[in-house]
Amino acid sequence: MTYCVGLRLKSGLVFMSDTRTNAGVDNFSKTKKMFTWEVPGERVITIMTAGNLATTQSLISLIEERSKIASDRSATILHEHSMFQVARLVGDTLKEVIRESNSNDGMKGASKFKATVILGGQIKGSDPTLFLIYPEGNFVEVTTENPFFQIGELKYGRPILVRAFDESLDFDEAVKLLLISFDSTLKANLSVGMPFDLQTYEKDTFKVRSEVRIEEDDAAYAEISNSWGEALRSAFKELPSYK
Amino acid sequence: MTYCVGLRLKSGLVFMSDTRTNAGVDNFSKTKKMFTWEVPGERVITIMTAGNLATTQSLISLIEERSKIASDRSATILHEHSMFQVARLVGDTLKEVIRESNSNDGMKGASKFKATVILGGQIKGSDPTLFLIYPEGNFVEVTTENPFFQIGELKYGRPILVRAFDESLDFDEAVKLLLISFDSTLKANLSVGMPFDLQTYEKDTFKVRSEVRIEEDDAAYAEISNSWGEALRSAFKELPSYK
């Protein structure tokens, strides 16, 4: 499995993904799940993927390849005029990859090739936004009522997001919140693993604000994890009893 | 779905279950998922169920019926000499119900009839214990390393249990912890719903210590839910930033 979250803040976007990939418990490794295309001053586009690794790798390779060899006629994520059109393009490409995997005669396994994508970024002329793209190629856009997307093993880390997320958080707070959400997931599920990839994007800058890989021995992360554990336990102790 | 948790404390057992049952989103109702058999001074046995409602109702009906009309020869949960034997009996009965549902000619749907059970209690002569019983009829017993069981929609409410549970909690603290875990689940998933059933059992008393149904308008629960939300947000604010 995988855990990725994309947040839309008033001041920009924050992306975080884990890096574990596994087929069974004795075949696991690290793989990058966050990919960025940047045209400084003009657009920043970030994609995070969850699902079948063959599918997500093909998706990223196709997007990458097409963005490089594009003739004037073909659409690429570097030439589309809006994030909505980029989402359509990524959705169509994802659908294409899944369809091709399924078309092998006699090798039925539709659900096996599924993948889900979080797409976010900003193109000059419109606001930063996020999309959640389904294996069928269709997608939904982030809204004020639903200001973040999660993919993969999302349940463990959801309660804290539901309770503490607010679009007016600053970048430091949003990163802290994501680290807590990832930490809760990590503590409960073996298929989500460190290191984590973290990226922030500040509105109207059209370049990545910060990008960091948080390794297992990261002291600042360990401090957040430990402090949060203690804070939870002491909040729990101080809570009134039931009746 | 469903959410049920059984905790083993040093001082006894605590059980909590939700009551929502649904087939789709427009067909839902309340149903009891916690069932208790008591022989005062001799044994208390509690069962919580998750899964297909037809399966779990048949299971409980069979157990109930057999415990009433037992001849000297047949085993019932009121006559077995240990919780381990009760677990075997419940597991066998569960397997029997699922096998019968699956034997309808031409109506294949093995996974549809699945159910999982938490069994807990104490029989005179041994300690209180908990079992997690699988649809296949086999089961695992609670251990010091793994001192609680969850069934149903268990992921949302797991992180707080993992972090704050300790066998030396008293009953009030354990109830508080369960309410937080259920509240986190409720906030994130429509298929788990109030009222909740809550039961506590004190070691070596051989009678139920307390049993309460927590309704939606329960003021004490609302206070815990709100206080916990506030406590989380303030713990979050006070946490150090990442670097």
From TrEMBL, chains A, B:
Biological source species: Pseudahrensia aquimaris
Taxonomic placement: Bacteria, Pseudomonadati, Pseudomonadota, Alphaproteobacteria, Hyphomicrobiales
Protein name, per record: Peptidase
InterPro entries, per the entry: Ntn_hydrolases_N, Proteasome_sua/b, UCP009120_prtse
Pfam families: Proteasome
SUPFAM superfamilies membership: N-terminal nucleophile aminohydrolases (Ntn hydrolases)
